[in-house]
Amino acid sequence: MRTVVARQMIAAEVLKLRRNRALMTLSLLLTVGIVILVFGYKAIQHASDASRYAPAGGAHGFGQAVAALGVYFGALSAILIGSEAGTADLSSGVFRDLVATGRSRLALFWVRAPAAIVVTLAFSAVAFALSAVAAFVFAGSLDVPTVGLILRSAGWIALANAVLAMVAVGVGSLTGSRAMTLTGLIGWQTVATNLLLNVSSLGSARDGLLTPALVQLSPVSAARESVTMATGVAVAVIIAWAAVAGLVGAWRTALRDA
Amino acid sequence: MRFISVATDIIETRGLTKRFGEREAVSAVDLNVPRGCAYGFLGHNGAGKTTLIRMLLGLTAPSAGTIRIGGRPLPQERGEVLSRVGAIVEEPHFHSHLTGRENLRVIAAVRGPQAGRRIDGALARVGLSDRAGDRVRTYSQGMRQRLGVARCLLADPELLILDEPMNGLDPAGILELRTMVAELVGEGRTVFLSSHLLDEVEKTCDAAAVIDRGRVIAAGPIGDLLRSDAVELDIGCDDPRLALELLDGHPAVGGAVLTDDGIRVTLVGADGAAAINARLVGAGVSVFRLAPVHESLEARFLQITSRVGDAG
Q1: In A, which residues are within 8 Å of B95 by CB distance?
Q2: Which of A149, A222, A238, B125 has a CA 20 to 30 Å removed from the CA of A135?
């Protein structure tokens, strides 16, 4: 596939996502909305009783926002967008028409991932920028985040959200069902992962979970419950999740009756 | 790029078969569709039309048999072949939250840069330029069908495959589509059109194949399909009962019955009309009409399909 065609196809995938008002609204609420809500609420608390409530910003507030964007609400937004990218053609019935153009099914699958990642990171970037500004504006007497922390946090959020978007694209393309993908992935990330982390008898098998691997690379304290692992193991686990999701999604797309 | 050599049929299948478990949806179909015509693919619902079309487009793999489009084998040269084929399978589907133009952009992106330059022309061609900026969810069934044709035109197709394109259209929409098919054929394209609407195939197509229970049971020009072994004449005259008596035992007459305004005669040979006319006029019967009976495709279809017994 020529570069110009790939670029056009990715742009078309982005178009499909960004013209979905419900998806865009929900993603905005889960990223920018959450940042505004958390900083706003804590700022009001601090303003009402400064002796009892710490300032909303500073390095601490920034760290909380980064954790929320990396493995909580930002992750939900990435899953929403990735699921939509993975299932939109199938659920609308357009997949058949795309296949009938003669374009390789693998090409049809692989352009979904960069599109989902681009849209996901657009929301993450705005929310992150807002968090960084709020960390300084509402710092009060607290230490502000360093430039190094800000840059490492930006990279980590980008990595975490991109990987989750990729996983959602793969699982969505595998199941073909948006509802099933959302339920499965959100249930896995929010409930099943925490349950498994508490099963100590699983030992190092828990290193294979995605969230602990992401948390391991986080420059801030990103989760209350996690397992520690070597950085190399964390990187390998993250790559494996993205790769396996991509491969199963591509495999199903290639073999699915259109 | 012109991928099709003009020497071959545009669609050629040999022994094409599709099985779903034990059930054979398409059975050893040999089909030859000549280029540059409107070709009907006629059959009851569930006869195997859509399954065959899905195989032609690589949407599902055949269980056995070969497919050549424009002389090129599928699936081996699928990408090249389908780049000049436009298709609507079952009904046209779109991203309903996108506008008509945006939906075309999505397909044009997949087809390549030159397809993007055809969007405006395709929209104008199907009369949707004014509504191109509206979301597809606001479109009527007829408008969706026309947008589906516009989507086909992005490929500058040598071959259009339209699966039940008349479904859901009102009479005006059907007329529009029929006109559009004629125009497309006039431009040298081939339109392969499946339908269970016999009347529409008869009016729209130059040739047709009849499929029943997965098997092609008749194929050829519409005129040939309509032609049956028995030739019948409707005779309008002033005294039908006398005419019936006069023709009883006539060597050119295989049978005759009274109708509302005359008699219907089954000829033994194809050239007995003049002899019959001479016999009646010679006996003083005034003949004011002598017309061969044109069988409708519907009647012929019911006659040749194995379900003829279910029709009543």
Answers
A1: 16, 88, 92, 94
A2: A238
Partner A contacted by B109 (CB < 8 A): yes
| CA pair distance B122, B103, nearest whole angstrom | 12
> What percentage of chain A exceeds 70 in pLDDT?
98
Nearest to A82 by CA among A216, A238, A252, A249: A249
Q: Amino acid identity of B166?
A: M
| Helix, strand or coil, per DSSP, at residue B220 | strand
Q: Do A8 and B54 touch (CB under 8 A)?
A: no
Q: A88 vs chain B: nearest CA distance in angstroms?
A: 8
Contact B95 A99 (CB under 8 A): no
Residue B294 scores a pLDDT above 80: no
**A53 vs chain B: nearest CA distance in angstroms?**
46
CB atoms within 10 A of CB A64: 20
DSSP secondary structure letter of residue B198:
H
Mean pLDDT of A115-140: 97
pTM for the whole thing?
0.81
CB–CB contact B109 A12 (8 Å): yes
Mean pLDDT for A176-180 is 95
ipTM of this complex prediction, to 2 decimal places: 0.88
Longest CA–CA span in chain A (Å) reads 68
User: How buried is residue B134: exposed, middle or buried, by Cβ count under 10 Å (0-12/13-18/19+)?
Assistant: middle
Instruction: Of A229, A217, A221, give the one whose Cα is nearest residue A155.
Output: A217
Per-residue model confidence (pLDDT) at position B227: 66
A96 touches chain B (CB under 8 A): yes
B229: confidence class by pLDDT, cuts 50, 70, 90: low
CA distance B239 to B246: 11
SS3 category, B67:
strand
